[in-house]
Amino acid sequence: MTTPIRTLIADDQEAVRRSVRRILEAQPDITVVGEAADGLAALELAGRLCPDVALVDIRMPRMDGLELTRRLAGPEAVTPVRVVVLTTFDLDEYVYPALQHGASGFLLKRSGPALLAEAVRAAASGESLISPSVTVRLLKHVTAPRRPERRRGPAVVPLTEREVEIAGQVAAGRTNADIAAGLFISPGTVKTHVASIQRKLGVQNRVGIAVHAWEMGYAVPTA
């Protein structure tokens, strides 16, 4: 039997925590190991409970979701936790920094139960929830496409033509299986390419790949 995905919920609204817990605990492969009403409490609980995934509200007292994400999923995290950011608002000035700090996904609180559970599963498996209706639209809003030669920041190892193609597909919110079917290659080959892209770009997850693709201007348009 597969070990359930250990999940921590961090939100300052008790009603939201109760609703999220009810949805997640109805899933046979997910268990909620703790709840926190503020960022500091969530950080302490994460250190004690070692969850696989943390659902983090972007706006909380004592420590906001941005700083909590950095502490849990950033490069300095002692025991990294996959973070899915939750918010009430479609557009939030903290979304892009949260993704930069290592968040594995971004989800609106009004998203349905299926999407919430899928976000937890995606994060736990090392992927990201990048749905055309949520994350990709936000990335398009906060990340203006630029020509490659004008890109600022640390140099990265150039991607191959195939890797550029796959990065664009990732930015469109497509899964490894979707990409494999469209390119007539195996899901395992896609997974290998995705790992290579992450290594070359120095990003932690598929969200980082999506951000890069939008910045470079080769993201595949979504329907």
Helical proportion, percent range: 40-55%
Q: Kindly, what is the distance between the CA atoms of the first and last residues, rounded to a whole number of angstroms?
A: 38 Å
Strands of the largest sheet, in order across it? 2-1-3-4-5
Reading the helices and strands in chain order gives: EHEHEHEHEHHHHHH
Mean pLDDT score: 82
Number of strands: 5
Radius of gyration: 17 Å
Shape: globular
Q: Number of DSSP helices?
A: 10
Output the structural class. alpha/beta
- Characterize the quaternary organization of these chains: single chain
- Strand percent estimate: 5-15%
Spans where pLDDT lies below 50 across 5 or more residues: 143-153
Descriptive report:
There is one protein chain. Mean pLDDT is 82; it is low at 143-153. The termini are far apart. The radius of gyration is 17 Å and the shape is globular. By secondary structure, the chain is of the alpha/beta class. The longest helix is centred in the last third of the chain and has 15 residues, at 187-201. The protein has ten helices and five strands; from the N terminus they run E-H-E-H-E-H-E-H-E-H-H-H-H-H-H. A five-stranded parallel beta sheet has the order 2-1-3-4-5, with helices on both faces. The protein has helices spanning 14-25, 39-49, 65-73, 95-100, 113-124, 135-142, 161-171, 176-183, 187-201, 206-216; strands spanning 5-10, 30-36, 53-57, 82-87, 105-108. Helix content is 46%, strand content 13%.
